[in-house]
Specification:
Number of strands: 7
Radius of gyration: 16 Å
Structural class: alpha/beta
Strand content: 15-25%
Number of domains: 1
CATH architecture: 3-Layer(aba) Sandwich
Length: 222
């Protein structure tokens, strides 16, 4: 089952007000960020620009940046309170290779063209199951467009396998999402990778992660 809070919509899983300086905290991010950092470090270039989309509280990027010091990290999020949280976390745990957060909606058409420079690494966690299929398609295609040749995109989250959930926890969580938003819910891993392939990315074999999540990687040919 996914271990992350929604990134679009109510922040009911965030510990709002946990810090007086505006930092939000997502317990799931604290649980999964070390294993994600390890997976990212295995695919990341030694140097370049890293773009994190839907950064949420900011608790991921402050761990990723020290683990991959050759990359300049750009966190983003469309929600003002989350950008404030990201900035507060960066101030509390500074790293020289993290830039101030930017306003970016990963599901808005055309965002790749608004970047100052393409990215060498793009990372997204736990968003696709919380948006519509059309929004997910936009997000995935824009990720492909935003990559430099030779760059890679990575996604962490829960997915259907061959059109079905593969655990009771995932089935329950997917049903709960669809009960609240019928056009949202888990996306099939083959659909995601097929869309990336149509966008010209070379997809690697999905990697199993804790809590029945997957880590997906697509590389842009040089």
């Amino acid at each position: 089952m996914s271990d992350a809070p929604p990134k679009r919509g109510p922040d009911k899983h965030y510990a709002d007000g946990a810090y007086s300086d505006g930092r939000l905290s997502a317990p799931a991010a604290l649980r999964n960020r070390d294993v994600i950092a390890e997976a990212l470090a295995q695919i990341a270039p030694e140097r370049g620009r890293a773009l994190e989309i839907a950064s949420g509280t900011g608790e991921h990027v402050i761990r990723f940046a020290p683990a991959m010091p050759g990359l300049t990290w750009q966190p983003t999020d469309p929600a003002p309170d989350r950008r404030a949280s990201i900035a507060a976390w960066i101030e509390a745990e500074p790293a020289p290779n993290i830039l101030p957060p930017h306003d970016l909606d990963a599901c808005a058409p055309g965002w790749a063209a608004t970047l100052h420079e393409p990215a060498d690494l793009i990372f997204l966690a736990n968003l696709l199951h919380l948006v519509t299929e059309d929004e997910a398609r936009v997000c995935l295609s824009e990720m492909a467009k935003a990559l430099n040749p030779g760059g890679c995109a990575a996604i962490y989250g829960p997915f259907l396998r061959h059109g079905t959930t593969t655990s009771e926890g995932d089935a329950s969580f997917d049903a709960r999402i669809r009960a609240e938003n019928p056009d949202h819910g888990y996306k099939d891993v083959d659909w995601v990778m097929g869309l990336w392939a149509d966008c010209g990315l070379i997809c690697e074999t999905p990697r199993s992660m804790p809590a029945n999540n997957l880590f997906l990687v697509g590389r842009k040919p040089i």
